[in-house]
Design goal:
Largest sheet: 18 strands, mixed
CATH topology of the largest domain: Diaminopimelate Epimerase, Chain A, domain 1
CATH class of the largest domain: Alpha Beta
Number of helices: 5
Strand content: 35-45%
Helix content: 10-25%
Radius of gyration: 19 Å
Shape: globular
Structural class: alpha+beta
Distance between the termini: 6 Å
């Protein structure tokens, strides 16, 4: 016998329906078997499906509503952090008049391993989420040489690389590579199968911007985890890039930074790094693509 749950399909970090990063958000009983969530995520076949508790967690603050959250990829993998899935979940909640009131200002998302993440509305239709800032450690020596060889195979040629770093606590599976801005990052061909040899699940490529409209641009690839290997706009990648570029460009803590992910769909982000709080605030606009009921066994 089947059941149904309400869902929203949105695209994050863009107001264009053909832009941004799509995500499904499902309001459901989170005590159901994990296979239920894996199957629903596979059926949606979106870069991420966020599952929220079907009703808010009790809160003593009338301006705050709270939900439990879990994220699953279309290949049935559960992940512990997803920026665009979080901001999409916030938009889905704010759109539900039966879940929020006119007083609601803050949404809390209670994760399994990452603590509580918050979201709030900002001017201009933006939603801001707060994520943990990540640190990088530079990869040197033989490992640096090996990764450069992998990247030469990945891009089909040698490219000028300024920095190679690995994420530290909480971001151990993240690789970040700064490519010289003279390289055309947007149009670089990327062989996802070759990139697997780097040994990281999340591979970020970034350069300083040439046009002055944003401070830096990026692309992110997660072969085997996202459809087509390239993530359209990756929120969590900016947990590493924002502190990195802030330090490199001399941008003060708490100063807003504009960035763009130059995947084929593309997306725009406003970012604030708080060095004292060790958090990154991501601000983005979203578009609702569809709402309805999803059926599951």
């Amino acid at each position: 016998m089947s059941a149904t749950a309400p869902f929203s399909l949105l695209t994050a970090f863009s107001t264009r329906v053909e832009g941004g990063n799509p995500a499904a958000v499902v309001f459901i009983d989170l005590s159901l078997p994990i296979e239920t969530f894996k199957t629903i995520a596979r059926n949606f076949n979106q870069p991420i499906t966020a599952f929220l508790s079907s009703s808010p967690i009790p809160s003593n603050d009338p301006k705050t509503v709270a939900f439990h959250v879990r994220w699953f990829t279309p290949n049935r993998q559960e992940i512990d952090l997803c920026g665009h899935g979080t901001i999409a979940a916030a938009k889905a909640v704010f759109e539900r008049e039966d879940l929020v009131s006119k007083e609601t200002e803050i949404i809390e998302f209670h994760t399994l391993t990452r603590g509580i993440m918050t979201a709030r509305k900002c001017d201009g239709g933006f939603i801001e989420i707060q994520l943990p800032a990540g640190d990088l450690i530079e990869i040197l020596g033989d490992e640096n040489d090996e990764i450069r060889k992998v990247l030469a195979r990945t891009f089909g040629k040698e490219v000028s690389i300024n920095y190679i770093g690995a994420g530290r606590e909480g971001f151990e599976d993240y690789l970040m590579v700064e490519i010289d801005k003279k390289e055309n990052l947007k149009d670089l061909p990327v062989d996802g199968d070759a990139l697997r040899d780097a040994g990281f699940s999340t591979n970020i490529f970034t350069t300083a911007s040439l046009n002055g409209e944003e401070r830096f641009i990026s692309r992110m690839f997660a072969p085997g985890f996202v459809p087509g290997d390239e993530d359209h706009v990756c929120g969590s990648a900016h947990c590493l890039m924002t502190p990195y570029w802030s330090r490199k460009l001399g941008i003060a803590s708490q100063e807003e930074i504009v960035a763009r992910q130059v995947s084929p769909r593309g997306g725009d982000l406003k970012l604030v790094w708080s060095s004292d709080e060790k958090v990154v605030r991501l601000r983005g606009q979203l578009a609702v693509l569809a709402t309805g009921e999803v059926r599951f066994a």
